[in-house]
Design a protein that fits this description.
This protein has helices at 4-17, 22-28, 53-63, 67-75, 179-187, 229-232; strands spanning 87-93, 115-119, 128-131, 146-150, 160-165, 171-177, 212-216, 250-251, 259-267. By secondary structure, the protein is of the alpha+beta class. The chain folds into two domains: 4-75, Orthogonal Bundle (434 Repressor (Amino-terminal Domain)), CATH 1.10.260.40; 88-267, no CATH class. A hairpin with a 5-residue loop joins strand 5 and strand 6. It starts with a helix and ends with a strand. The model is unreliable at 77-86, 193-203 and 219-243 (pLDDT under 50). Residues 186-205 are annotated as: Disordered.
């Protein structure tokens, strides 16, 4: 028998395969960005909600999956063998994501320090999990949250990302324009069409420009744009906002070995 959580897990897996977060899928379907958030899947009585049929149909239309095919995948050959099948991937707590030897020369997880983590849905590629084991980023990220990152998925402006630098503290946050680099290019008279924009072409590989910076998910970074911190995590944030402090941004180093920028594609926020 199909259960509500089977449906949610299957939809999450399909969205992840296409590089969509729950909020990204909702936006693409023309729905409220919070429609598929984990917190909205639970009823006031603590039970998992059934998704409304019109909502499901709009999501499947975005994912290019027919309702009949979705049901067949859900049923599969029994729970655990269909689209919502669990998969074991590599993972580490955030506090242990600073040592050397964690990633290979292409930025993919490597070595014996990683733990096995079980996800309730299938993921593709060399995805890995980071468990937030600090309360320093609340309320944007709760302690105990788990994030799924995809090294091969190109990060884009306003994406949630992890900036990893060998021997340094990892930085979780929002990818933004580096105001210092952008200002320097404008002062130098570089046309906007010729300004360096490596994001979207390099995947998670080391970037060749410092045009980009990360706005950390720290308590001191919220609120942004005059909205509550919990809402800021779901909004597009740009350095043009007066609430984004330049001194709080972490520049993405220029094309250095051992520097990786990985996109967060799913998580329990």
């Amino acid at each position: 028998m199909i259960r509500p959580d089977d449906l949610w897990e299957a939809l999450d897996a399909l969205a992840l395969e296409q590089g969509l977060t729950p909020s990204g899928l909702a936006r693409a379907a023309g729905l409220d960005p919070t429609t598929f958030n984990p917190s909205r899947r639970i009823s006031p009585h603590g039970d998992m909600r059934w998704m409304a049929l019109p909502t499901l149909l709009r999501a499947l239309d975005v994912l290019k999956i027919s309702p009949a095919d979705f049901i067949r995948r859900l049923e599969g050959e029994g729970r655990g063998q269909g689209i919502g099948a669990a998969r074991r991937i590599r993972g580490l707590p955030l506090s242990r994501l600073r040592g050397s030897g964690l990633f290979d020369s292409t930025g993919r997880p490597n070595g014996v320090l990683w733990e096995d983590v079980t996800l309730p849905c299938a993921v593709t590629g060399d995805a890995y999990v980071v468990r937030v084991d600090t309360d320093s980023m609340e309320p944007l990220l709760r302690e105990g949250s788990s994030l799924v990152l995809m090294p091969d998925m190109p990060p884009r402006r306003s994406d949630r990302v992890l900036l990893w630098r060998s021997g340094m503290e990892p930085v979780l946050g929002i990818l933004l324009d580096n105001p210092l680099e952008a200002g320097a290019q404008r002062k130098a008279g570089v046309p906007e069409s010729r300004q360096v924009d490596p994001v979207g072409r390099t995947g998670g590989r080391a970037l060749s420009s410092s045009r980009w910076a990360v706005q950390p998910f720290t308590a001191s970074a919220a609120p942004l744009r005059g909205i509550p911190a919990y809402a800021a995590a779901e909004e597009d944030m740009h350095v043009s906002s007066p609430f984004v402090r330049e001194d709080a941004l972490v520049p993405v180093p220029e094309g250095k070995a051992g520097v990786w920028l990985h996109r967060v594609v799913m998580g329990t926020f």
